[in-house]
Specification:
Layout lengths: L4 E9 L2 E3 L7 H14 L6 E3 L1 H10 L6 H11 L5 H15 L6 E9 L6 H11 L2 E4 L5 H15 L19 E12 L9 E7 L2 E19 L4 E7 L6 E8 L5 H7 L2 H7 L9 E9 L1 E8 L1 H9 L6 E3 L7 E14 L3 E3 L8 E2 L5 E4 L4 E7 L4 E8 L5
Parallel strand pairs: 2-6, 4-5, 11-17
Antiparallel strand pairs: 1-2, 1-6, 1-14, 3-19, 4-6, 6-15, 7-8, 8-9, 8-11, 8-16, 9-10, 10-18, 12-14, 13-14, 14-15, 18-19
GO molecular function: serine-type endopeptidase inhibitor activity
Family: Belongs to the serpin family.
Keywords: Protease inhibitor, Serine protease inhibitor, Signal
């Protein structure tokens, strides 16, 4: 049985709610790293999908006022024109769905029986394949039931209850939901070799199940971060991989996250296609599971996108504009032996690690799940706290 990752993002606009995912390479990486750093808290583990938040907002660019559209393009590192925004998002979504067995994204929009902007439904349907459904938002329980039924089915049972009736305030006029499901296997961890081992969490030492592998894997040392990077590829021809960033004992995780940049990520991309990075390694990785619900509004405000929440900026209805109210994300990741259920560039130096290497990931670390062909960051997070 394979593991799964399910990510659901919801954006509430003073009447509109939206959810989405995917993006281009360069801009999406910059946004992902910025978002992760601004959302970081040492008090809890994290699983984030900034690519979903960026794309959800990008999907609404088409019905944004000129001023709001400019804020979106600047803050999300989007193309300079509306057509470019659409084509970029369409392309990434098609890339996500090219191997639906391992990674798939579905979206659906819920709308009132009212006079809507005639371009909205057609825009979402024709460009992103978004299905639509008419609902009465005054009947919160019924709407929540219908939404939860679709999310449960689309997430393959991973999210049985996503929306509660009391989350639908009186000014909600639209709900756009996107579910992304990842189902990928490793193929090299042997469950018989897993053993109990101490993990040095920020909130104390605890025993964990440490998975073991002995083989040839790509690895790199980021000198300025004093951090080792190890790439674990998912099954044959999956186009997916996880990179674990393990700070050396002389430095803590918070320091690494604070100084990690998109340029460091671009260094890690070298692990995909150069044999020189491969070396013998005896590696121990903990089984872990993280569930996180994030109200992303505060993070976006820290990143300079606060104006989107202060002005009537989106033409959802034909007769009036709507404000962006909230941005929420619900995410889940489980990693076990079977797989996963869900500074200037010139100053950055990376080094080969010569000889055989024996390392256990037994202290707080950062991880990135990525799509190699597009270089996109699908999920990014850290495992640092014992949560029982």
């Amino acid at each position: 049985m394979w593991s799964n990752v399910v990510v659901t993002l919801v954006l509430f606009c003073g009447g509109i709610a939206a959810v989405a995912s995917s993006s281009d390479g360069g801009g999406s990486v910059r946004f992902a790293v910025d978002f992760f750093k601004h959302a970081y808290t040492a008090r809890q583990n994290a699983i984030l999908a900034p690519i979903a938040i960026r794309s959800g907002l990008a999907m609404m660019h088409h019905v944004a006022t000129p001023d709001a559209a400019r804020i979106l393009r600047d803050g999300l590192y989007l193309p300079a024109d509306g057509l470019g925004v659409i084509e970029q998002t369409k392309w990434v979504m098609s890339c996500v769905n090219e191997r639906k067995r391992m990674l798939e994204m579905l979206s659906r929009v819920y709308l009132p029986d009212a006079l809507l902007n005639p371009e909205l439904v057609a825009h979402l349907r024709d460009n992103f394949g978004t299905g639509s459904e008419i609902v009465n938002f005054a009947e919160g329980s019924e709407v929540a039931e219908r939404v939860n039924s679709w999310v449960n089915e689309s997430s393959r049972g991973m999210i049985p209850e996503f929306l509660k009736a009391d989350e639908l305030s009186g000014d909600v006029i639209s709900l756009l939901i996107n579910v992304m499901v990842m189902n990928a296997s490793w193929g090299f961890f042997d469950e018989k070799k897993t053993k109990k081992q101490t993990f040095h969490f920020l909130n104390g030492d605890h025993e964990v199940d440490m998975m073991k592998v002995d083989g040839t894997l790509p690895r790199m040392y980021l000198e300025d971060l004093m951090t080792d990077a190890i790439k674990l590829s998912y099954g044959w021809r999956s186009d997916l991989s996880m990179v674990i960033l393990l700070p050396r004992k002389e430095v803590n995780l918070e320091h690494v996250i604070k100084h990690f940049t998109a340029d460091h990520y671009n260094q890690l991309v070298q692990l995909d296609n150069e044999d020189k990075w491969y070396g013998n390694i005896r590696l121990g990785v903990p089984r872990f599971k993280i569930e996180q619900k994030l109200d992303a509004k505060a993070t976006l405000e820290k990143m300079g996108l606060g104006e989107l929440f202060d002005q009537e900026a989106f033409q959802v209805l034909a007769t009036r504009l709507s404000k962006l109210g909230q941005v929420k994300q619900s995410a889940f990741i489980k990693v076990d032996e079977k797989g996963t259920q869900a500074a200037a560039a010139a100053a950055i130096q990376s080094y080969l690690i010569s000889g055989s290497w024996d390392v256990d990931v037994d202290r707080p670390f950062m991880y990135i799940v990525r799509k190699e062909s597009t270089k996109d960051i699908l999920f990014i997070g850290h495992y640092s706290n014992y949560e029982g």
